[in-house]
Design a protein that fits this description.
Coenzyme A-transferase that converts butyrate to butyryl-CoA. 28% of the residues lie in helices and 21% in strands. It has 446 residues and is an alpha/beta fold. It has two domains: 3-181, Glutaconate Coenzyme A-transferase; 197-444, Acetyl-CoA hydrolase/transferase C-terminal domain (Glutaconate Coenzyme A-transferase, 3-Layer(aba) Sandwich). β3, α5 and β4 form a beta-alpha-beta unit. It is globular, with a radius of gyration of 23 Å.
Length: 446
Amino acid sequence: MGWYDLYRQKLAPADEAVKLVQSGDWVDYGNFAGQVVDLDRALARRRDELSDVKVRAATRVAGVPEIVRVDPEGKHFIYNNWHLSGIDRSLSDQGLCYYIPILFRDVPRYYRQYIDVDVAMIAVTPMDRHGFFNFGLQNASTRATLEKAKKIILEVNENMPRVPGGREECVHITEVDCVVESSNWPIPTAPLLKSAEIDQKIAQLVVSEIEDGSCIQLGIGSMPNAIGELIARSDLKDLGVHTEMFVDAYMDMYSAGRITGRRKNIDTGKMVFTFCMGTKELYDFVDENPAIASYPVNYTNRIQVIGENDNVVSINGAIEMDLFGQICAESSGTRQISGTGGQLDFFVGAFLSRGGKAFCCFSSTFADKKGKITSRIKPLLSPGAIVTTPRSVAMYIVTEYGMVNLKGKSTWERAEDLISIAHPAFREELIAEAEKIGIWRRSNRC
């Protein structure tokens, strides 16, 4: 029997395929821009037949899951998430999405060693002539999920980019139970966020620390865009890419001739990532691009692997941090905003890299919903705030008022350094609080 004969044998409508799901099952939807859509709608249509179906996903960007929309009281479906998007955050605020704490690099092991998966539903590219379906924009823990799943359903989408590996970027027709040809819904995009003046000030400070041949890791948002734009206009040479998330800034830097990967110690010449999210132009760029290599997250985010490249430059953000150097990048008090993701992985990995530097970049203040201006640098983290990166790991901290390096610094030195880059309107208040908690010396006062 040929691969296409087997494909036709396993082909089924979405409503038929989701009959594999039973009450009490754990179901995986895939991650990021690779989550299922038609299968989600079909499963939602079975609402009244099912109870206690637990669904896992990461960073939903394809709209509110239909299983949540049709079951607002969570009587039939329980939605869980590894890393919250704006959609997931809104659902979490309503008690309709439960966060799963993680270290991103460890998630494949969670699946292989600890997690039950009754049915895995994954969005994939069309099958190639060798019988393989490519995972497209998601790699992360996908292969591990399918290995653990009792049943596998693929949702084929002709719009999904085919992204080269790496490794663990595909599944074979012989491994799956059911194939559904989707409605070829548009792959969800993440719009470019225009950088503000503060972002550009911070970008200038960071880019001044980047050398020819550095290996770059960026997150998403206006800050990485500002850094990417500045690097694209610079005269930096032979930059490399080893990151968890691949965003438009890399495409811009590559197109400007800044990225070649020639000086990377591993995966030389390849831009390495574990998932991709951005514009349609970015998805076209990664499609069948031999300069790209998709890997599972236990490779991209493994600290020893990150450290194998020289001059790793890791750039991430924060919601707030305290004068001890603890960084919260995922919650506002007890309210979950996003997730731990790979910030800690890359902070540690960059430090293991010869010449490596890890930057935490953020505006010195933010305005709440009532317009009140608040300092992001606080004496202590807000009650309930999650420590994403511990003080022992923090390295370069950057605001629009400057840059400091906390490595090897005592508590009083950290307090002085961080107050020096806080907004001037809050410095006296921070000094007073630092004195109360015993981490202030008057050495930097005239």
